[in-house]
Amino acid sequence: MKKNFVEELRWRGLLHNIMPGTEEQLQKESTSAYIGFDPTADSLHIGSLVQIILLMHLQKSGHKPIALVGGATGMIGDPSGKSNERNLLDEETLAKNIKGVKQTLERFIDFSGAVVNSAEMVNNYDWMKNLSFLDFARDIGKHITVNYMMAKDSVKNRINAESKEGMSFTEFTYQLVQGYDFLHLYSNKNCKLQIGGSDQWGNITTGTELIRRKVQGKAYALTSPLVTKADGTKFGKTEGGNIWLDTKRTSPYKFYQYWLNASDVDAENYIKIFTFLDQDTVEKLIQEHKEAPHLRLLQKKVGEEVTTMCHGQEAYENAVKASQILFGRSTADDLKTLDEQTFLDVFEGVPQAEIQKSDLASGIDIVDALNEKSGFLKSNGEARRALKENSISVNKEKVKDDFVLGSKDLIADKFVLLQRGKRNYFLLKAV
Hints:
Elements: H1 5-12, E1 17-18, H2 22-28, E2 32-37, H3 49-60, E3 64-69, H4 91-105, E4 120-123, H5 125-128, H6 133-139, H7 146-150, H8 153-159, H9 169-172, H10 174-189, E5 191-197, H11 201-215, E6 220-224, E7 237-238, E8 241-242, H12 252-260, H13 264-273, H14 279-291, H15 297-311, H16 313-325, H17 332-336, H18 340-346, E9 352-355, H19 357-362, E10 364-365, H20 366-370, H21 380-388, E11 392-394, E12 397-398, E13 404-405, E14 415-420, E15 424-430
Parallel strand pairs: 2-3, 2-5, 3-4, 5-6, 9-15
Antiparallel strand pairs: 1-6, 7-8, 10-13, 11-12, 11-14, 14-15
Helix pairs in contact: 10-11, 12-15, 12-16, 13-15, 15-16
């Protein structure tokens, strides 16, 4: 017996609004449903992860997911939840972004064609590119009144007295264009349901209304809440910017750290939203966490589940290993397993100095490395005292005053990690 899709979303806190009759339709038969993805970059970030997970739940429940990449709508810009006009994208950038979004989605959803409810990917540019303005105005525009469009929050918020920017005609038409997408998929793919974030409700219901008026059809709408953080900061953002699903943009280490650093309140939400653990397991984990919050069981479990889902088991294990380097008992061998990006992420903010590779090849006396070559310690005397106290490590291994630094000590063929005591780090970068 397949899971009840709506029920699954309900207990996970993933259900915000649902049109009457939607749950009955999904229980009655296998139903095609779509979610739109905005190609504003060549990778999706974790802000899109909820929508991806909704499609995964949909497929697991026996329904057919359709992922729509907005090649046409990317040229217009969605006003929902925005206060300013969005920059429009050219065709070349769009094509690159669409390719990246497709590659990301294929890691999570089965598009193989091997299952009955295999997912499908569509690009709305394919059916919009040949549609003239006159055709659109005549065949689509006449079915939806300006009064109806003006009543949407996404429009009202932009044209009220407090709004300085106003709203262009281009963005005003967005909900009609998205509505046309739904009509097209309804008519050509028998797609009866559109899913999106809560800020999309207005756009989605314009689509159901267009289907009703244009072809006398019955379509449905479902939205999920927008994920927020308990401290009021934006979900999926750090000081360094977005947390991306592409490892070239965000390393698995940094990705894992994001979930590990979640507050207790947020981790309790994340374990429901971003994992596929069943309800009993989740409730048990929440209870265990409350009994010993200092162990951060929830954060670790969320980090494990989401990192494994997005990047695989090996990447997760490497991220854990990297996380332990600053605080655990790691060795030079552990350090040497790190790639350059992960190494830099782990030691982000650690002071650095450059040394010549040729000097390393000849060998550098440890006292010179600590003082003259790096400025890590203020004088040769301080360096010698620290060595005598046995408080200096090179690449996590204690060294004496007779140690000579050489090319063999390079990590990722570029770095040497100096350390005094437990927490005082310094990087030498070979150039």
